[in-house]
Write a structure and sequence with these properties.
alpha/beta, 7 helices, 24% strand
Length: 229
C-alpha cells in the first residue's frame, strides 16, 4: 500500500464532522484539472507513510474522528487495499469512504462483498464519447459502465460526481446523467465546479451556467448536490 499523504479534513456535506483522509499514490489517468496531480506518479513522492505508522496515528486520533476517507490517486490500483482496510477496521469502528474513478470494478465488488467500505464516491468524468478526452488517454468505456452498475447494486451507500470542466457543456452533463440513470434512478449525484489549476488552463464556466445546468438535472436524483459555487 503506497500512502502518499495523510491529513484531517472536514467531511464534505457534513459540517462539524472530521475525517482522516489517506491519499493513495498513483493513478493511471491524466486528468489535467486533478487537484492531486503531484501524487499521480508514486515515484515522484518524497514523503511516504508506512501502514504501520498510519495505524499508530489512527489509534491516537480515532476518538477525535468521525470517519476515514481513502482517496488518491486511485486507491483501487493499490495491491493489498483490502488487507489495509481490514487493518483499519481492526483499529477503529469508524465509517470508511472510498473515492474512486471506477477503473477497477472487480475491486469494488470485492470490497463491497467484504463490507470493507461504507460509502463509495465515484467520479464520472464525462459522457461516453468524451471520456478519453477528459482523462487524457484511451480507455475501455465498458469498464466504466460496469463500475457504475456495480456501485448502484453494491448495497453500499454511494455518490456519483462530475467536475464541470470547461470541455464539458450543459448537453454533455445531460447525456452523462442519462447514461448513469439507464439502469434505474441514481440515489445521489454531485455536480462540482471546476477549479483552474494553471495559467494555461481554460477559465471555469460561469456560476450562472453551472447553476442552470444543475437545475436541469437535479430532479433526476434522490439527492442532488452542487459544490464549489
Amino acid at each position: 500500500m503506497h500512502i502518499a499523504g495523510i491529513q484531517n479534513n472536514s467531511f464534505v456535506d457534513y459540517p462539524g464532522k472530521v475525517a482522516m483522509v489517506i491519499f493513495a499514490g498513483g493513478c493511471s489517468w491524466n486528468c489535467y484539472y486533478c487537484h492531486n496531480r503531484d501524487i499521480i506518479s508514486p515515484s515522484s513522492q518524497g514523503v511516504l507513510y508506512s501502514p504501520d505508522f498510519l495505524m499508530k496515528d489512527l489509534e491516537a486520533r480515532k476518538k477525535f474522528l468521525d470517519g476515514i476517507v481513502i482517496g488518491g490517486g486511485e486507491p483501487t490500483l493499490q495491491e493489498g487495499l483490502g488487507d489495509f482496510l481490514r487493518r483499519i477496521r481492526g483499529v477503529c469502528d469508524l465509517p470508511i469512504k472510498l473515492d474512486t474513478n471506477g477503473i477497477q470494478p472487480d475491486v469494488l465488488i470485492d470490497l463491497a462483498k467484504a463490507k470493507l467500505v461504507d460509502f463509495i464516491a465515484m467520479d464520472v468524468k464525462a459522457p461516453k464519447e468524451k471520456y478519453s478526452q477528459i482523462v487524457g488517454l484511451p480507455i475501455e468505456i465498458e469498464e466504466i459502465d460496469r463500475a457504475i452498475k456495480v456501485v448502484k447494486v453494491s448495497g453500499v451507500d454511494y455518490e456519483f460526481r462530475t467536475t464541470f470542466c470547461p470541455e464539458l457543456t450543459q448537453s454533455d452533463i445531460v447525456r452523462l446523467v442519462d447514461w448513469i440513470s439507464e439502469e434505474g434512478r441514481v440515489a445521489r449525484y454531485a455536480l462540482q465546479q471546476y477549479v483552474k489549476q494553471g495559467a494555461m488552463h481554460k477559465d471555469a464556466h460561469t456560476k450562472e451556467y453551472v447553476q442552470e445546468t444543475f437545475n436541469k438535472i437535479r430532479s433526476r436524483f434522490g439527492v442532488a448536490v452542487l459544490r464549489g459555487l
